[in-house]
Amino acid sequence: MCGIVGAIAQRDVSQILVxxxxxxxxxxYDSAGLAIYNDNEIQRLRRLGKVxxxxxxxxxxxxxxxxxxxxxxxxTHGEPSERNAHPHMSEDNIALxxxxxxxxxxxLRDELKAKGYTFSSDTDTEVMAHCLxxxxxxxxxxxxxxxxxxxxxxxxxxxxxxxxxxxxxxxVARSGSPLVIGKGIGEYFVASDQLALLPVTRDFIYLEEGExxxxxxxxxxxxxxxxxxxxxxxxxSDIQHDAVDKGRYRHFMLKEIFEQPQVVNxxxxxxxxxxxxxIETLGANANKVFADTRAVQIIACGTSYHAALVAKYWIxxxxxxxxxxxxxxxxxxxxxAVLPNSLFITISQSGETADTLAALKKAKEQxxxxxxxxxxxxxxxxxxxxDFTLLxxxxxxxxxxxxxxxxxxxxxxxxxxxxxxxxxxxDEAKEKSIVDALEHLPNEIQSAxxxxxxxxxxxxxxxxxxxTLFLGRGQQYPIAMEAALKLKEISYIxxxxxxxxxxxxxxxxxxxxxxxxxxxxxxxxLLEKLKSNIEEVRSRGxxxxxxxxxxxxxxxxxxITVFPIKSQYAITAPMVYTIPMQLLSYYVAVIKGTDVDQxxxxxxxxxxx
Length: 609
Known about the structure:
Layout: E1 3-8, H1 14-23, E2 31-38, E3 41-48, H2 51-60, E4 67-73, E5 88-90, E6 94-99, H3 105-114, H4 125-136, H5 142-152, E7 157-163, E8 170-175, E9 180-183, E10 188-191, E11 203-206, E12 212-216, E13 219-223, E14 229-230, E15 235-236, H6 252-258, H7 260-268, E16 272-273, E17 276-277, H8 286-292, E18 295-300, H9 302-319, E19 323-327, H10 328-331, E20 342-348, H11 354-363, E21 370-375, H12 381-385, E22 388-391, H13 404-423, H14 428-449, H15 452-458, E23 467-472, H16 477-491, E24 494-499, E25 516-521, H17 527-538, E26 543-549, E27 560-565, H18 573-592
Parallel strand pairs: 18-19, 18-20, 20-21, 21-22, 23-24, 23-25, 25-26, 26-27
Antiparallel strand pairs: 1-4, 1-10, 2-3, 2-4, 5-6, 6-7, 7-8, 8-12, 9-10, 9-11, 11-15, 12-13, 13-14, 16-17
Helix pairs in contact: 1-2, 3-4, 4-5, 7-13, 7-14, 8-13, 9-13, 9-16, 14-18, 15-18, 16-18
Catalytic activity: D-fructose 6-phosphate + L-glutamine = D-glucosamine 6-phosphate + L-glutamate
Function: Catalyzes the first step in hexosamine metabolism, converting fructose-6P into glucosamine-6P using glutamine as a nitrogen source.
Keywords: Aminotransferase, Cytoplasm, Glutamine amidotransferase, Repeat, Transferase
């Protein structure tokens, strides 16, 4: 989603702000801007398009100064344009940036117009700027004015503001959209993601829900939602600096695809010991809750939802307890019935996904046995809101289309499934079979990656097509869904996934020589059924591309191109077959010339509904 960077220092902060925005480009955006206190006034630059456009404008018109805020915008209210880009200003003294959505902006806009304010944009953010300016008239400080402003707002926001009449501070507020404060020597920084600030600091504190803060050169004052001062220690981040370096790869997405063997090793480290699965850091009383669990409810969005659907097969097969999976945006807005002794699980890469976070808050009032999040961000809202946490250890993922984070989620969910099973007396032979599969998984993924060149050649058959159908059965059906999503996200080709057994119930009507059909065909108990589905397609003139286990006995012939995959273990096959699907989507997008890492209209972290 949108990116925020702010800085207050004794040195020029303009390049710190721009570099921070560059490090947040992976989040998705359509415009960029900054505002800097310079020569006794706030001066602003905004540009439609990439941060590089803003950098060029800054080169042409330098704005030196020790106080500034910057932003990359992903359009919600108002079209992508320079006039709608952040920062927004009120009169000549207030400048403000904002992530999130203010739901009552129309009502507030009418009130402000009646007081004489004029609007130069279509955004909800400009409403906030004018509200802050109005409240400042009757407040003793900018922080107090921000507190009053936030009480008027309905919706989500992470916001930073500065005042030309009080240039010794920034004020920030957080409600539903993350903000982090970084500390240097005699200087402080603010951002929506610590990644933006790693070149200048590694010491951070994270604002909690409902908090506001005043950030000065000599320190930070944090107030909770009741106005009480909060004491919080800075934490040192161990995140890697090179997360935003593509290295030898053409795109971040390709780099992250090839990082997956290491990601699996990192996710297993310390959790797979002496051929046993041991997770000791989930949280207090986790084993007691797991032992009492008689049903599981999983909530997620997008790629995380597909990971949840795979986990459903594992949980019901190995634990013999019901597992319900639902899209967060649907779950949060309907009446739900909670099965007795249910464990509530959320899955999110960022831990800030708005719909999933709202569903978690709803669940905490519904009598679940406990709440657990599977997440890649240890400082996220979902981690703080949940009773238990399982971190995925995927590292920073820059490409908007998730790859390594998905694999890490699947591995983590398998570890979680076994941990719940062991609390309920899982047979040691079952655990051993899963451990064997996990121990071999990094090498099997590496083997799949070695097929990249052949998949690149295969991708040419898709580049000029307008539609693609993906088929899978059992736990491979969600992998087909994820494959279709990837192709849609980065190549803009319409793609759909079906459970192969559903072909006769409608999709067969689509089959012709112009629509490629991709089949995921591991050697499992559904393989013979899947072969029949393949024949149904071939007999109707469909062009089949089958990713099949080497021993599946499916041969290339007229209308069928078979791509052999090595996968010894059925339970980990979803992770292995994900790799060629990711590579296929990537190479098709490269041929089509799309923006692979930042596909149009999409954002990395969806912190609004």
